[in-house]
Amino acid sequence: MLPGRGRDGRAARLASILGTRTAWSAVGDGEFFCPGCGGDRNYQRLTGHRRFTLLGVPVLPRGETAPVVECAACRRHFGTEVLDHPTTTRFSAMLRDAVHTVALAVLAAGGTCARPSLETAAATVRSAGFDDCTEDQLSALVEALAADTGRVFSEPCGAGLAIELHEALDPLAPHLAPAGRESILLQGARIALADGPYTPAERDALATVGAALTICTDDVTSLLAAAARTPS
């Protein structure tokens, strides 16, 4: 059989005559975390219209494609679900705010805002990204929080504080590895333990933190127990 005369040859000739082409149109842009580049990049959101082609010329519409996200750097296309992943900058801000909220919740649960707890909380918050955080600032915020909510110190985690914890932690939890979620809980545990054993209110606040981070109850109990056994 001569080259190009078989089934593969006929298919190749047909493909060179008939085909499809997608015309893309930009419908939005922004910044996202590109899975291909591994970092924050600009993107365009594209919609596509497919057409049959004859000898490379579009002739008949074939319908729309699902929208895609095109990275401005690597030009790769991704499904729009990649936009659900926070950018590195946004993720850092979410993590910083989460640690700050957990520190305030544990201090409020502790009641006395003892100096060792304040020092540990301030160091923890500074490490998370609030470089200018001080013990006095945290103490004032805890007092303002109590005055704003009418909450009494040392009581179990109330609805208002639980809502704040969930608002800070719920969006973050899906983007953290198990070790990252546990790290946030343990940072709160170290603040609670800085001035002595857990109080019932501190345990309640930390249990709320664990639930918001999607850590199961048994694991929360084990982590808090391990933290209490670890010398500070």
Automatic annotation (TrEMBL):
InterPro entries: DjlA_N (IPR007791), TerB-like (IPR029024)
SUPFAM superfamilies for this protein: TerB-like (SSF158682)
Stored Gene3D superfamilies: TerB-like
Highest rank taxon of the organism: Bacteria
Chain ranges of the Co-chaperone DjlA N-terminal domain: 98-220
Pfam families recorded: TerB
Record-given protein name: TerB family tellurite resistance protein
Organism listed in the record: Streptomyces osmaniensis
